[in-house]
Structure formats: structure tokens, C-alpha cells
Design a protein that fits this description.
heterodimer, A: alpha+beta, Ubiquitin-like (UB roll), 3 helices, elongated, B: 10 helices, 0% strand
Chain lengths: 91, 248
């Protein structure tokens, strides 16, 4: 059996969104099952199924080390504070 | 509402009864199908078939719900025109899957015969059902295709096919009024005329199955019920009988 991640696109300009997953022995069975399990009440008008084995994964060890680098978060607050001070000094 | 001839009514009821009982048979798998996804899929397909039955009953009875209920649930057993294929109580899911494949392959051809019908509403019903049926066939075929590739499953499917096929032949048996209904424009040709095409598709799917020598069930122009009909109808009436005057 394979596991597929199911993405559903609602009508209109909304993007495809993750809807859940489904197990199936092949693509065609996955598709006919996903249609009834995720879209039988017209929750969307198009389906994407992605075999989980084919997903390119960046896992936590690879991605998370960037979480503790606050110096990379420049929200502009210190620059704004400095400019405000200069403006007030100039009056 | 257009007044339909007796022949037209017979023809439509045979179709409606098949759809009705077929839908009911699918719903019996709710909660006990072999896996959750199939549980939902079968129930959903069953709901489609019940919807087709409702459209056909409404063509005969008009939009009066209690008249539709009377047709669907309250006729005498002898007045039903269902085929034995849809009445049959099968022991296993493999039988259900085989029946699903065989029935929907035939149903496609049956709707095509009324797609240009002169009966008001019937051509529109055929168009709607046709869209749903293409999914039903794809569902049945995907599962059969996957399972035929597994030796144990293939053997179980083949055994089920041996039991189900003779009954499936009875699906093509006409009611007495069919020829008259065709001359009135209800349908373009006898259902039986599509049997060889259906048989070719069955043989292609199930690898050379020989349908030539199978005996069709003795349905007496669809006037005789099989032994499985009575208990099925009793279950179908169970909720209705709690309060026949209830409005949903």
C-alpha cells in the first residue's frame, strides 16, 4: 500500500489546500477513493494526489536550527526608533 | 403531469426497482465494508443509485412524496419488476464488487437507451445519471483491476463471478410492455439488444469469461420475485412502518 497526500482546490481563485491523506495500492484506486472521501459533498472541484514517497522532505534537523537566530528577524523597530529620535531632535 | 401508458409505466418501474434495490444493497455495507474509504465510497454510490430510483419513480408518480413512497415501498411483491441480480443477498464483499462492476456496465447502456426519450424528464435524468455512472464504473474497475493482480483476490473474484454472472444475465430480461414502450418513444431499443456489447466488455475485463452457456434466472418477465426479496423488502419498510405519516 502507498500513502497519498490529498490536495483539494475549491472553486474560484482559492489555491489547492491539503485536505488529508489516503492509503491505496495504486494511483487509480487512490483517486477514486479520494473523490468520495474528500469531495463527495462538493468541497472542491479539483484534486491533486501526491504519493508521499515522492515528496521532497526537509525535516526538523535540517530546517529548525534557524529558529533560534533572532538577529535574522529584522522588524525595522530599531531603525524606526532612531529615525523618530533624529526627527524630534531636529525640531 | 403527462399520462403514461401502462407499458411505459412497466418499463420505468423495472428500471426504478433495479436502481432502488441496488442502492439498498450498497447501503447494507455501511459500517462493515472491508476498509473505511470503501465504506464511504459504496455508501455514496448507493446514494446515487437511490437518487436515480427517486427520479424514475417521480416520473411515474409525479412529485408527490407519498405517491413515490407507495411505489417504492408499498406495492405487493408480485407488482415489483426488479431483476434477481439486485434482489440477491450475497455472502461476501467480492460478490458485491463483482455485482457492482456488472450492474454498472449494464446501467450505462440502459441509460443510453432512454437518453432521447419522449417521456418528460427522462432524457434529463439520463444525462444526470450518466455523469454519476462514469464515476461508478471507474470505482468498480479500479478495485477489480487492483485485486485481479493479487492471486488470492483474483481467485475470490473469479468464484464470485461464477455465482453472480447468471443472475446478471437476468438484468436484460424485458417486462411485457417493453416493445410497446419502445414504439411509444420511451426508449430507442430493447435492453436485450445491448447484451452482446455488455458481454464483450465483461469478457474483456474478466479475461475470457464465457457467458455463452449460462442459464439466465427464471424471472417470468420480471413478474416473479426471488427468495431474497421478501426479507430485503421487510428491512426496507422497517423505518417507514414506524410512522407512515411522518414527513421528513
Amino acid at each position: 500500500m502507498r500513502t497519498y497526500e490529498v490536495f483539494l482546490k475549491p472553486d474560484g481563485r482559492d489555491e489547492f489546500r491539503h485536505a488529508g491523506s489516503i492509503e491505496a495500492p495504486n494511483d487509480e484506486v487512490a483517486l477514486v477513493m479520494a473523490r468520495e472521501n474528500y469531495a463527495r459533498r462538493a468541497e472542491g472541484s479539483r484534486l491533486w494526489l501526491v504519493d508521499r514517497a515522492r515528496i521532497v522532505v526537509g525535516d526538523e534537523d535540517f530546517v529548525a536550527p534557524n529558529a533560534d537566530k533572532p538577529h535574522r528577524h529584522n522588524d525595522g523597530a530599531r531603525v524606526a526608533e532612531r529615525r523618530r529620535r533624529l526627527r524630534e531632535d531636529g525640531k | 403531469m403527462t399520462v403514461l401508458s401502462e407499458s411505459a409505466i412497466e418499463y420505468l418501474l423495472a428500471f426504478a426497482d433495479d436502481e432502488h434495490l441496488m442502492g439498498q444493497r450498497y447501503t447494507e455495507w455501511i459500517g462493515v465494508a472491508p476498509f473505511l474509504e470503501e465504506d464511504l465510497a459504496l455508501a455514496s454510490i448507493g446514494q446515487d443509485e437511490l437518487g436515480h430510483a427517486a427520479m424514475l419513480y417521480a416520473i411515474v408518480a409525479g412529485d408527490d412524496d407519498s405517491a413515490i413512497d407507495r411505489l417504492a415501498l408499498l406495492r405487493d411483491a408480485d407488482d415489483y419488476r426488479s431483476s434477481w441480480l439486485v434482489e440477491a443477498e450475497f455472502p461476501g464483499w467480492e460478490h458485491t464488487l463483482v455485482r457492482h462492476w456488472l450492474y454498472d456496465a449494464a446501467e450505462e447502456l440502459r441509460w443510453e437507451l432512454v437518453s432521447g426519450s419522449t417521456v418528460p424528464g427522462l432524457a434529463a435524468a439520463a444525462e444526470r445519471a450518466g455523469r454519476e455512472e462514469s464515476y461508478h464504473r471507474r470505482h468498480a474497475d479500479a478495485l477489480v483491476d487492483a485485486l485481479l493482480g493479487v492471486p488470492e483476490s483474483a481467485e475470490r473474484l473469479q468464484n464470485a463471478l461464477t455465482e453472480v454472472l447468471p443472475l446478471a444475465l437476468g438484468l436484460f430480461e424485458a417486462v411485457d410492455g417493453e416493445a410497446m414502450a419502445i414504439s411509444e418513444g420511451v426508449a430507442t431499443a430493447p435492453f436485450e439488444s445491448r447484451r452482446s456489447l455488455w458481454q464483450a466488455r465483461v469478457a474483456a475485463r474478466f479475461n475470457g469469461t464465457d457467458l455463452g452457456r449460462l442459464p439466465a434466472p427464471d424471472q417470468d418477465r420480471r413478474r416473479r420475485r426471488s427468495p431474497d426479496f421478501a426479507p430485503l423488502m421487510a428491512r426496507m419498510r422497517e423505518v417507514y412502518n414506524l410512522d407512515p405519516s411522518a414527513v421528513w
